[in-house]
Task: inverse folding
């Protein structure tokens, strides 16, 4: 009996500060897929797209992600592989086995572009599973940028500003 709807699902991101929004995205991918491919942006891609030297190295981000997956027991729920990606599409535009893509509301449009590229290549479009943005205490989305700025913590709680 097949208990999950998909054999292979993909999810991707920078995963710099592993926050509550990332965790919800990942939990959903593990819940619906027997196998999960997690694309993590390369250092080169981070330098091109974000240009923020405060973002950890690929190896550090990958290690932290794998540690969280194992700590949460996700590795027992589904097989997974963390792969380096050098662009916003990763393996999703050419992997024939891939069936679904888990994205946030913020990256939904990119998923539609991925499907257009897959169709052009003669591949089946992916089922796109969207998870809502996880909001911080102030109603704004939790993001690694906000965490790096010291506005919120990884759960979306306010950080106290110190007066100098």
Result:
């Amino acid at each position: 009996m097949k208990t999950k709807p998909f054999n292979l699902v993909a999810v991707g991101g920078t995963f710099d500060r592993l926050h509550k929004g990332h965790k919800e995205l990942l939990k959903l991918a593990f819940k619906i897929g027997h196998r999960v491919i997690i694309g993590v942006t390369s250092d080169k891609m981070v330098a091109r797209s974000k240009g923020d030297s405060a973002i950890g190295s690929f190896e550090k981000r990958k290690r932290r992600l794998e540690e969280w997956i194992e700590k949460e027991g996700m590795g027992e729920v589904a097989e997974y592989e963390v792969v380096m990606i050098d662009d916003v599409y990763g393996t999703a535009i050419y992997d024939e086995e891939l069936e679904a893509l888990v994205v946030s509301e913020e990256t939904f449009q990119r998923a539609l572009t991925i499907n257009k590229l897959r169709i052009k290549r003669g591949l089946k479009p992916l089922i796109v599973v969207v998870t809502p943005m996880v909001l911080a205490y102030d109603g704004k989305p939790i993001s690694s940028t906000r965490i790096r700025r010291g506005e919120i913590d990884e759960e979306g709680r306010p950080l106290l500003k110190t007066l100098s």
In short: Strands lie at 6-13, 33-41, 79-85, 100-104, 127-131. The helical segments are 20-32, 43-49, 58-71, 74-77, 108-120, 144-148. The first helix runs from residue 20 to 32.
